[in-house]
Amino acid sequence: MSRVLVTGAAGFIGSHLVDRLLAEGRDVVGVDAFTGYYSRRTKERNLEDARGNERFRLVEGDLLDLDLDALVDGVGCVAHLAGEPGVRRSWGPNFPRYVARNVLTTERLLEAAGRAGGTRFVYASSSSVYGSDPGRPVGEDHPRAPASPYALSKLAAEELVGLYRRERGVPGTVLRYFTVYGPRQRPEMALSRFLFSALRGRPVDVFGDGGQQRDMTYVSDAVEATVAALGAPPGVYNVGGGNRATVRDMIEAVRRATGMDLEVRYGPEAQGDVRSTWADSSRAEETLGYRPNVGLEEGVAAQARWAARALVAAPA
Questions:
Q1: Which residues have CB under 8 Å from 315's CB, separation 6+?
Q2: DSSP 140-171
Q3: 0.85 exceeded by pTM
Q4: What is the DSSP letter of 276?
Q5: 159, 48 in Cβ contact below 8 A?
Q6: What is the residue-averaged pLDDT of the chain?
Q7: Is the CB of residue 137 less than 8 Å from the CB of residue 280?
Q8: Are 201 and 90 in contact (CB under 8 A)?
Q9: At residue 122, what are phi and psi to the nearest 5 degrees?
Q10: How many angstroms separate the CA atoms of 11 and 34, rounded?
Q11: What is the pLDDT of residue 1?
Q12: Whose CA is closest to 150, among 240, 62, 83, 217?
C-alpha cells in the first residue's frame, strides 16, 4: 500500500486526513511548518493520536526550504493541504505571504512530483475561486471570479496543477472545498468563533447582516472525498456538504448545540467575503463516489462537544 505525503498535516483538515489514512492502514509522512497563524499547541493536539502510530512520521519544516525530492521519494500520493488561509488577511502587505505559501510551495511540490515520476498529486483548493454563486449551484466549469487576494492565490495554484498535468504528466487533481467545519476547525473561522463565544459567555462580532449563505461541509465528508481522490482519475471536483445555511442559521444551531445564549454584534461586511456559496458536487458523486453524510445539526453538535473539551484542556 503506497505511502502518502500530507502537507499541512497538523492543521484542521490535514490532521483529520492523517488520522483517516492511518486508520486505513497506510503509511503517512506529514509535513507542517507550524506557522504563527494560530497556536502551535492547538496544532500539536491535532496530531496526538497520529504521533502514537508507528506508520506516521512528522517532518517539521517550511515547504519553501525543505528538500522536497527527499520528501517525495517513495511516496505514491501527495495530498497538498498546506497553505496560508484567510480572506480578510490577504489584502495589501500580507499578499506576498499568500503568493509564497499558496503558489510557490505548490510549484515546488509539483516539480518534485514530476521528477519522481508517477506520483499522484491532490491539491486542496477552495470554493472562493468562484466568487459568489449566481443563485444556483455552481459546477466545476462555472467561471472563476475570485473576490480576494487569497482566492486569487488558490486559483493560481490550481492553474499550476493543470499546467503540470498537461505539460509534465503529473496526475494532478484539484478539490474545491466548500466551507469545511467540525472538530479542530481554525479558531478564526465563523462557526469556531460562535461556539467558543457561546461557551465562554462572551458576545461575538459578525461581519455583515448575517444573511450570507454558505454550503457547509463537515470535515469527515471532506476527508472521504480527499481519500477517494487519491486513487481516482485526475480532474477538478467540487466538495460541498449539501447543507446550505445562513450565518444566522449557524448562530441558532450553536445556541441549540450548547444550550447557551449568544449575544451577536453585527458590523460592516468584510472585504472579499462573498455573499453566497452553493456547490454542485455531482461530478464528485459520479467519479469519486462522494456522498456527504453529516447534516448541519449533527455536525455543529459534534464541533460543540469538541470545543467544550478544548476549553477544559486550554481555558482562556
A1: none
A2: TTSPP---SHHHHHHHHHHHHHHHHHHHH---
A3: yes
A4: B
A5: no
A6: 96
A7: yes
A8: no
A9: -120, 120
A10: 9
A11: 45
A12: 83
187 and 38 in contact (C-beta within 8 Å)?
Answer: yes
Burial of 93 (0-12, 13-18, 19+ CB in 10 A): exposed
Amino acid sitting at position 13: I
The grid coordinates listed for 135 are 443563485
Q: Give the chain's length.
A: 316
Which is catalytic among the residues 150, 164, 181, 237? 150
Q: What CA–CA distance (Å, rounded) separates 84 from 252?
A: 30
CATH of 3-313, picked from 3.40.50.970, 3.20.20.30, 3.40.50.720, 3.40.605.10, is 3.40.50.720
Element (H, E) at 243: strand 243-246
> What is the C-alpha separation between 85 and 272, in angstroms, rounded?
13
Encode pLDDT of 144-187 as tens digits: 999 999 999 999 999 999 999 999 999 999 999 999 999 999 99
Active-site residue, 150 included: yes
Domain range annotation of the chain: 3-313
Cell for 235? 480532474
Which residue ranges in the chain fall short of pLDDT 70? 1, 315-316
148 close to 90: Cβ distance less than 8 angstroms: yes
Nearest to 123 by CA among 164, 90, 75: 164
The residue behind cell 487533481 is 173
Structural contact between residues 238 and 140, judged by C-beta atoms closer than 8 angstroms: yes
Separation CA 42–CA 51 (nearest Å): 14
Phi, psi for 25 (deg, rounded to 5):
95, 10
Cα–Cα distance measured from residue 113 to residue 76, given in angstroms and rounded to the nearest whole number:
9
